[in-house]
Amino acid sequence: MPHDSFPLSQEICIFLVSAGLIVPFFKHVRINPVLGFLLTGMLVGPFGLGSLVVQHPWLSPFTIAEPKNVSSLAEWGIIFLMFTIGLELSLNRLWRMRRLVFGLGTVQILLSGTLIGLFAYAWGNSMAASLVLGGCLALSSTAIVLQLIDQKGQLGSAFGQTNIAILLMQDLAVVPILLLVTLFGEQSIAQLDQTAVSAVTPNNLWLILPLTLLKAVLVLLAIYGVGRKILQPLLHMVAKSKTPELFLATTLLIIVLSANITGMAGLSMALGAFLAGLLIAETEFRHTIEVDIEPFKGLLLGLFFMTVGMGIDLSIIGEYGILILASVIGLITLKTATTSLSAWLFKIPWSVGLPVGVMLSQGGEFAFVVVGLAVHYQLLPTDVGYFMLLLASCTMVLTPLLSRIADRLGAAMEHHRLQLPLAINQAKPQHELEPHFFMGHQANPGLAHTHGLQQHIIVAGFGRMARVLCRSLGGHSVPYIALENNPEKLVIANTEKLPVFYGDATRTSILKKAEIASARILVITIMNGHEAEALVKKVKKLWPKIYILARARDVEHAQQLMNLGADDVVLEIIEASLQISAIILKRLGLSQGSVQHHIDQVRSEENPHL
């Protein structure tokens, strides 16, 4: 078959080699994979090795001369990323975090965006371009920042939680920013007889924007209303088939369909995917779906970052080196100041707010999306777009260094704060920064998100035994999460709004989503003996400190579970028999002490090795 039948073969091969070899190398030397993809794209793109192909034709198989060949496929990386962001948010989580997310996050975006936009306007950009640049550069890199915080175990700290709250609002802000770019772009195309950057004026902006937003709201409400009615029943029906491939295919269909609906309505396709994620986040299937699509999201997002890297012309550094250096320093300084000031306005101590400002002072991955779209619509000249992409890239490359500076700065300021009189240290409220701020401790937490759970209990399986246990834990306000891969057993959990999620507890990725690393106890009530044994073996190997209580069919099974690492085992048949014996003996008039002594003796005889 001729080579022309596979127009993407060379590009895809180069990408897979990069994903399988080059990027792992960057990770080995502690460079974030996102930056690895960016640098790889810069290396193999038309401004890297591609520029040497004419002099050295043998380099041709190792370069991508036309990034447009893969750009349409790469755009799905952002669509999948927006879907997973929707999964992470959920309406319930947003409401519990509303003060810091919608308050602090909004102030940070408006303050940073306004100042950046004013600087952009002062440098001769149009009003539309200045609004776009201010909005996108006010955002930080969610992918890099959260990974660095997670690697250092800071997610549960006040520093980590404040970063998360601001990043959540920044993720939400992507939606209106994309709407603005689309709005400005459509106006530019509609008025090609005028200068593109001047197509949107202060006079027509306030008329066009409300109409576009109204259209967007109507479309989103329609999708939300229909999706909320059909998504959960649809996923239940597919899950009953117990066919992982069908479940994955249905998930991909939901993402693609929702993205295309908003695309056909003239809105961003990523917006539709985001809404689909938001809807699924309210169901018990979110953990399994998040794990299933992770490889697709990772690969497509990596391809997206590679295409971004391919579009960066490094020759600009030689031409505008001093200006780029000054812009990098200026952006980091400005965002550090505005973010820290925003945190201070919300009574967050400087020992937390200033390090957060440093940590979030870089540009974000969505700057590539927004700037690329703005260049496509001719809102920004190509050279200005390249400059902004290079500025965002440079600040992202510096994020690991900024993280170390933030850690040292926070430690120094906290040490200094502790030396101050106690009365000064008591000047700020801390309730917004405690771990329960993200957990939302409550007797009946519903389908709450597991992110941030600490010292909780994980129940593997949701049969009758687990149901009674979960009700007891919920009645005593003990944080827990249950995992069950039989959708029919989730009906009762849904009715009572118990935190029971669809997922196979024997999968490592599902256990990680349940925050097993910070859990106190794992209770295994799985009926399948082989699965229970495999789960005990896996958990003891990966998380040896967690206490495991397992259910066993008989003495032989119990002994096997103990040998594999279970700390305690309950034999269901024997325990039921003992309960019946206890009731009869009490009915016959024996004292409570005598009955308990008899039960303990029988239990010891029936379980001599346990």
Q: What is the compact description of this entry?
A:
This protein has helices at 9-28, 33-44, 68-89, 91-96, 98-122, 127-137, 142-151, 158-190, 202-240, 244-264, 269-280, 286-310, 315-345, 350-359, 366-376, 382-397, 399-418, 422-425, 436-439, 464-475, 490-496, 508-513, 529-542, 555-564, 572-587, 592-606, and strands at residues 457-460, 480-484, 500-502, 521-524, 547-552, 568-571. With 610 residues, it is mostly helical. It has a six-stranded parallel beta sheet, sandwiched between helices.
Provide key terms for this protein.
single chain, mainly alpha, Na+/H+ antiporter like fold, Rossmann fold, six-stranded parallel β-sheet, elongated, disordered N terminus
CATH class of the largest domain: Mainly Alpha
Write down the overall mean pLDDT: 77
Write down the CATH topology of the largest domain: Na+/H+ antiporter like fold
CATH architecture level-2 label of the largest domain:
Up-down Bundle
List how many beta strands DSSP finds.
Answer: 6
Weakly predicted, low-confidence segments:
1-6, 192-200, 421-449
- Give the spatial strand order of the biggest sheet: 3-2-1-4-5-6
Distance between the termini: 66 Å
